[in-house]
Amino acid sequence: MDGEDGQERNGGGAGEGKEASFLTEEQRDVLRNALRNKTVDGAAHGSQLLLRLQSKALRGDGSAAGSGGGGSKRSSARRTPNQVERKPRGASGKSTKAKKGGAGGKGTWGTVMDETMSVPAALDRNDPNYESEFSAEEGMQKEWDEESLLAEQAHALESYKQKIVDALHEYFAHSNVQEFAEAVQKQRRPEFAHQVVKKTVLMAMDHKPKEHEMASKLLSGLYPDTISKGQMCKGFDALIESIDDVCLDTPDAVHQIATFMTRAVYDDVLPPNFVERSTVAFPEGSKALAVAQKFHELLNDPHHGEKLERCWIANTGQTLEEVKDTVQRMVKEYEDSQDIKEVRRCILDMGMPFFHHELVKQVLVAAMEAKKEVIREKLVALLAALSRSGEISQRQMSAGFDRIMQRLEDYAVDIPEAVPVMKHIRIQALGEGWLVEGTYKPAEGAMGHLAHFKAKCESILKEYSSSGEMGDVRDGLSRLKCPDYHMHFVKKALSMALDWNDHERELVSFLLAKLYPELLTRKDIGEGFSLILSSMEDLVLDVPDAPHLVSLFLGRAIVDDCLPPAYLAAVLDEIDNTLGIEVVWATGRLLNTRHAAERLLRCWGAGASVDIAEIKESMHTLIAEYTTCEDMKEASTCLHDLSVPFFHHEFVKKALVYAVEHEQSMAKIMKLLRHMNQSGEISDTQLLMGFQRVESILDDLSLDNPQATQTLAACRSSALEEGWYPVTA
Asked: Which helix (H) or strand (E) holds 141?
């Protein structure tokens, strides 16, 4: 009866129609558009992120690999360029196809050849546009001076290289991909674009992992509109050819260049068979061969997709405490020297614009502690200068002030003048226009109450991580009687779990699913994740793998039906840091893979005991028994006890198939589905997915049930008339 089980979605086998991911086509479109339209003020590579999304994220072909648990090979790294429908990476968003062979199009090869070689517009003497090389009027033959032409070309190449180096220095300082792309395009020399690839990688290798990551993102952002596939390959060929010289200055150049190459494959800017197609010779025992071997080793790693996505990020260096110490020394030295140029140099060297709020906070603390008014004025003048020059963004300035204002009572214990001093500085900053109102809104006793709530939550969660007793958490949270602060409980649970092992992370995911909706609402869980996403730039300092872990927590919450898939698009309006947006993008990609629900259920290793075949059999038995006794309460209890909210679409599908095969039971089935949807047991997303799955197998169902199409249409019409069919989800 259930022959359609060979075509499953998420929980089942392969290929139900073209779509085989957790997200519906409409949900993918909404998230894709939200990501594409999102802009990030002051983000290190925000524009590049959005451009990359246009070509890779949420294609809906199920090609991106999931990274939950053990993960699987990232199939996109095996995809050939001709299999990818690439969208433009330019900020304009205009549709532009990659050029084939590097020719054609305004401002590309045609213009360069016209200007440098003076090739005639037509070579056929019968063509009316033909221009003879022998001018009758001039009466003399034009001759090319090859040496002069070669010298001119060499000079043009050197000039091009210097301008690229200058543009790269600017890029590594300000991280503006679009500005760099415009600088390259302004040169109107696409035949030299391979030099951009080579210079970018070589300059990055002279810097820290942060610049390595920026270089990889730059190459991804420039392809294919600024650098063609041929020029990209030629640039990496040039790197391999010069490996012997590069190794003299960079001993681990073999590993680094191989990593850049593999990351380029991951970013879809190099084909996976790049080495096989390369024109470079790979003699036995050479460093070039070592690069090729390392490239294949990295590419064939079972989890290369997950590793390459974070290949540079995980090594960016300092811990949170080390960065804070650096900022504190910077402020102390300024108090002694009042050298603003030195502060600016230190800020630039630190390379953490997302952490400038710590500098603002430290300067304000020093101002409150200053014994002399002149020192206090100099400190305030420093903040004003950095704000007006844009070196500290308005958001970071406001965040720094907010952090002080939220703990002002605590500071006042040790600094008697703290309150009047901060009040004066804040009024001055607002009046002079270098500070805008932040999120801080003082409330009588509110901050002390929140601090107490957080401390209690931390104690409850520590106990839970040891005992696993969810009942104690439920009782403890209920006794606090602070429903308005529940989003902070969610944030605390997630942030603590980042430092725990996978078993404890599974406990946290399980806890959130069980506390919803009895104690935690979707709004509480959503706002908790919003707080985490907004603080990603800080979290990654202590936990380099935080973006990956948070994407798993977020994907798991959606699979557990604690959050709707639409949350991913909605939350983008609340976050304005690049890492937070990347987490949303990565979560969408995870949910868009085949068998996403199963993978995310197992992402911490503890969900592997779920037997999908057994779950399906239980659902079938449940439906059959219900049609006999019509006990909806018992049916709802049994479905709830299966604890697979991510797989409720299977229940909907089986119920509708049962209605098709037993028309006399259709009314009973529709009554059950309506009850479960309206009670919240089956979400709108799962309900709609179930209907869509049955619709995709109608041809097979109709072989044994000719009336299948009419029956399903009647079920849908009934649900629409009664107002519980989800038009959108």
From this structure: strand 140-141
